[in-house]
Amino acid sequence: MKIALLAFQGDVSEHERAIESLGAEVRLVRRAGVIDSCDGIVIPGGESTTFMRLMRGEGVDQEIIEAKNRGKAIFGTCAGLVVLGRSRYGLGLINADVKRNAFGRQRESFEAMLDIPALGNEPFKAIFIRAPVMEQVGEGVEVLARIKEGVVLAREGNILASSFHPELVDDTRLYRYFLRMVEEGKSRG
Ligand code: GLN
């Protein structure tokens, strides 16, 4: 299984380590021509405006849209969620209205233990850093976790989006969940 990891900026090496620890291969994406040979895509945290600019410059945004339409699984975390969601900063590939920097100065960065039934009974330690939330999600979107400010983990078909940073904790359950989505996409495609 090959995962295309957007590597324009952001916490790339932590994602790489987590994905490889589960036996999948990682291909770093800094230009067009890599995504096509991969089974799934991860868009890490960073700065969504920078991501969008660099992706557009390289034509990688079009490749992501194409991958989505072909049923490949795509996982966006934090800025990656902004890139996938609906706002003037994103591609609108998940039916969710996204608010960037949703927690303001007071809660720039914090941890929360989340109940995520889809991952089992153990709470998940979620790290939020200048995080976005999904303020409103449309039909077809499965809400996997929510806090008082909004939805922080959701899935719609082959798209998975989290407000928080799974690469910063040792718990690999969310990656395993994503890799199962990648498998499903492969067997469909
Ligand atoms: N605030 C950033 C943005 O909206 C996301 C922060 C992050 O990815 N840690 O692009």
From TrEMBL:
<dbReference type="GO" id="GO:0005829">
    <property type="term" value="C:cytosol"/>
</dbReference>
<dbReference type="GO" id="GO:0006543">
    <property type="term" value="P:L-glutamine catabolic process"/>
</dbReference>
<feature type="binding site">
    <location>
        <begin position="129"/>
        <end position="130"/>
    </location>
    <ligand>
        <name>L-glutamine</name>
    </ligand>
</feature>
<comment type="similarity">
    <text>Belongs to the glutaminase PdxT/SNO family.</text>
</comment>
<dbReference type="InterPro" id="IPR021196">
    <property type="entry name" value="PdxT/SNO_CS"/>
</dbReference>
<keyword id="KW-0663">Pyridoxal phosphate</keyword>
<dbReference type="GO" id="GO:0016740">
    <property type="term" value="F:transferase activity"/>
</dbReference>
<dbReference type="GO" id="GO:0042823">
    <property type="term" value="P:pyridoxal phosphate biosynthetic process"/>
</dbReference>
<feature type="active site" description="Charge relay system">
    <location>
        <position position="165"/>
    </location>
</feature>
<comment type="subunit">
    <text>In the presence of PdxS, forms a dodecamer of heterodimers. Only shows activity in the heterodimer.</text>
</comment>
<dbReference type="GO" id="GO:0004359">
    <property type="term" value="F:glutaminase activity"/>
</dbReference>
<feature type="active site" description="Charge relay system">
    <location>
        <position position="167"/>
    </location>
</feature>
<feature type="active site" description="Nucleophile">
    <location>
        <position position="78"/>
    </location>
</feature>
<feature type="binding site">
    <location>
        <position position="100"/>
    </location>
    <ligand>
        <name>L-glutamine</name>
    </ligand>
</feature>
<dbReference type="GO" id="GO:0008614">
    <property type="term" value="P:pyridoxine metabolic process"/>
</dbReference>
<keyword id="KW-0456">Lyase</keyword>
<protein>
    <recommendedName>
        <fullName>Pyridoxal 5'-phosphate synthase subunit PdxT</fullName>
        <ecNumber>4.3.3.6</ecNumber>
        <ecNumber>3.5.1.2</ecNumber>
    </recommendedName>
</protein>
<dbReference type="InterPro" id="IPR029062">
    <property type="entry name" value="Class_I_gatase-like"/>
</dbReference>
<keyword id="KW-0808">Transferase</keyword>
<comment type="function">
    <text>Catalyzes the hydrolysis of glutamine to glutamate and ammonia as part of the biosynthesis of pyridoxal 5'-phosphate. The resulting ammonia molecule is channeled to the active site of PdxS.</text>
</comment>
<keyword id="KW-0378">Hydrolase</keyword>
<dbReference type="GO" id="GO:0036381">
    <property type="term" value="F:pyridoxal 5'-phosphate synthase (glutamine hydrolysing) activity"/>
</dbReference>
<keyword id="KW-0315">Glutamine amidotransferase</keyword>
<dbReference type="Pfam" id="PF01174">
    <property type="entry name" value="SNO"/>
</dbReference>
<dbReference type="InterPro" id="IPR002161">
    <property type="entry name" value="PdxT/SNO"/>
</dbReference>
<comment type="pathway">
    <text>Cofactor biosynthesis; pyridoxal 5'-phosphate biosynthesis.</text>
</comment>
<dbReference type="GO" id="GO:1903600">
    <property type="term" value="C:glutaminase complex"/>
</dbReference>
<feature type="binding site">
    <location>
        <begin position="46"/>
        <end position="48"/>
    </location>
    <ligand>
        <name>L-glutamine</name>
    </ligand>
</feature>
